[in-house]
Amino acid sequence: MAILSSFAPLTILSLVLLVVGIIVSGVEARPRAFFVFGDSLVDNGNNNYLATTARADAPPYGIDYPPTHRPTGRFSNGYNIPDLISQRLGAESTLPYLSPELRGDKLLVGANFASAGIGILNDTGVQFVNVIRMYRQLEYFKEYQNRVSAIIGASEAKNLVKQALVLITVGGNDFVNNYFLVPNSARSQQYPLPAYVKYLISEYQKLLQRLYDLGARRVLVTGTGPLGCVPSELAQRGRNGQCAPELQQAAALFNPQLEQMLLQLNRKIATDVFIAANTGKAHNDFVTNPQQFGFVTSQVACCGQGPYNGIGLCTALSNLCSNRDQYAFWDAFHPSEKANRLIVEEIMSGSKAYMNPMNLSTILALDSNT
């Protein structure tokens, strides 16, 4: 007994240190914050809180979203790209910035500022009226930092943002809901397509510079998908099931110039802040060869009406497929959850053709050692 009792203080001390270690490890293990900017491809529900027609808050949106199987404001049958990246980070999904639930510890997870219908340019998506345009998303990001500073202090808030991962997805609407929205649109009268693309890239660079000035240091920047191949454009502009050539040309001009601009920004900053995510290439893989990825079709949307289910909105009265995993497109514009998973696979582990200068797995490995 005497021998055992002499070790009791050490045993107690060991247990205390073990518990403290677990607590400290738990703090250190908190997933990095995640911030999302952009359009409907990454909107987690901000537009639910706005008086706009660009909404996904009615069935059958969210039909596969667990556990409720109800609409959330995501333009998907289930998870979207930010959700799936959050899962890879070991974190819960970021809440929409306009959600009243985004307060307290939830703020430390990050925030989603994206808004369906917006573009790089302020005049993109004017038909949707009340949406959160890019300049406003960045203003909200600054406001967010002030809110977090009030909780954890300015220095810790700055570190939280510096160590965070950022995703930005914008640009497709500048073609679909601006330049090509109507014949002889104001922008198409102002610019031939190559000049318009250069203008978009120059304006996008300003937004990304502002994002950097606000503290972002790891930013995934996605290109546009195969714009002319979405069911909406097949129905309205395609011929005999062929992708609409003018929109395909727009994507072919935009994506390489975006990647070059990001690399130039990195050279200017002298570090790899901006990562070009060639989601257009990933998307095009299963658009051109859907069967290879387990899809029955990459032309017909799961939910919609008219040719290719590409006319109008997805509503409770629309045609609805029974197996969403067999469709590359959920609605007239947006990928299905399965397609989003394939895109995130390339974001995580894709080669330099998909992720330049590095994929997200490499980023996470590098950042864990710093």
TrEMBL record:
The molecular function terms in GO held by this entry are:
9,9'-di-cis-zeta-carotene desaturase activity; hydrolase activity, acting on ester bonds
Q: Sorted alphabetically, which Pfam families does this protein's record hold?
A: Lipase_GDSL
Major enzyme class? oxidoreductase
UniProt keyword Lipoprotein, yes or no:
no
EC number(s) per entry: 1.3.5.6
Q: Where is the signal peptide?
A: 1-29
Q: Which InterPro entries match?
A: GDSL, GDSL_Est/Lipase, SGNH_hydro_sf, SGNH_plant_lipase-like
Keywords recorded for this protein, A-Z: Hydrolase, Lipid degradation, Lipid metabolism, Oxidoreductase, Signal
Q: Please cite one Gene Ontology biological process associated with this protein.
A: lipid catabolic process
User: Do you know which PANTHER family this protein is assigned to?
Assistant: GDSL LIPASE/ACYLHYDROLASE FAMILY PROTEIN (AFU_ORTHOLOGUE AFUA_4G14700), GDSL-LIKE LIPASE_ACYLHYDROLASE
Which family does the entry's similarity section mention? Belongs to the 'GDSL' lipolytic enzyme family.
What is this protein's name?
A: GDSL esterase/lipase
Organism, as annotated: Glycine soja (Wild soybean)
Tell me the organism's taxonomic lineage: Eukaryota, Viridiplantae, Streptophyta, Embryophyta, Tracheophyta
